[in-house]
Amino acid sequence: MPLQYSHQPINRERWLRELAELLAFPTISAQTQHRRDIEASALWLKEHLTRLGLRHAQILPGPNGGHPSVYADWLLAPGQPTLLFYGHYDVQPVDPLRDWRTPPFQATHVGQNLFARGASDDKGQFLIHLKAIESYLKTVGSLPINVKVWLEGEEEINSPNLPALLDREEARLRADAVLISDTEMLGQGRPSIIYGLRGNLNFELEVGGPRHDLHSGRYGGAVHNPLQALCEMIAGLHNHAGRVTIPGFYDRVREVAHALRQELRCAGPTDEDILTDLDLPQGWGEEGYSLFERMIIRPALTVNGIFGGYVGPGNKSVIPKKAVARLSMRLVPDQNPEEIAHLLRRHFTTVKPPAVTTRLKITGGSPPVIISRRHPALTAASRAIYHTWGVPPVFTRSGGSIPFVPYLQQYFGVPIILLGFGLPDDDIHAPNEKISLPNFFRGIETIIRFLQEYRL
Length: 456
Fold this sequence. Notes:
14 helices, 2 domains, 18 strands, alpha+beta, six-stranded mixed β-sheet, four-stranded antiparallel β-sheet, single chain
């Protein structure tokens, strides 16, 4: 009955309307002007969880003035395991707005895709969980197992208040396993279960010079330009072979066995596939590894944005008083974000030109994680995938980071199932984000089957 319910056109049409309502909230957690939008979205989710038939729906205030999260549960299956569904309702900024082909907070149906910010990361994917729950509660009136739902509002800013929240809500959130759909499949019709995530470290480097902007015609050649100094420092972070030059950066990197590298290469896309998908003539990065390996098992350092000086129309001959760059690292086992931050500070102190000042601000970080494949919950997920998609899942790693995962491993020590339904071309964190509607509906079928398969 739940599967039949999920196939009914009237339900599917309503689910897309509900997803569009949720996507209309501009829940950009990195921008303070959207605080009210985040709070309004949390209230919408609380009311939606109640309508589904879940119990104890409530908004959990964020510690330290952080963004709220939303919780509900259904714990009426004695003797059965308890599964925690995790998702996040905050989203990335939409810049550059001019590159969007459709309004970012107006869900737009084009072909077999739905376009909007958050469509795949992560509103569309966690709504898959909620619609699977609805399919049971609106037909048989119960669930095969106990469930808890927790929807976070700070994932896109590295969950800065997560440790404090877990300290406060440990009893409420404790479960036998956790299911997260915030990752992607290898391709259309190629479902996967992620068992490894890279960690991350986000930071901001500011280079300062004169106390105010200077006329470049008067002072050019006599005063070191902070913007130029910043660019030189950033350019020096990699060598010609694509390796990070920070001393000690690779010291703790755990080498991946040859057999596992071969397994990942066979499962993942080829260099040609990746370059064709991105419309690029050539790859870049650390020598000795395929592009896919560089994306999932090797560390990386990326410049995310840089600003300084005059960028308006026309010319302005100026030496800016300061320049700022925002950068991020992706870390692999056994790199530690705190240790890497220490190496970073020491490196910039060493390479800083004497004519400028520098200020390094760490804005967030989370450790890498490897998840054991051997647990009944993962076996149940594999069976659900096979019965829905007709093929077994590919076990692979992801280059992304989900701060919640290592924290939950640390606090609860339970298996975490990373079962995502996004696609590589969903353009998450970029203009024109989308979700595949066939994947959305098959994802609901998968979770319906998983709930039954995980029953003891």
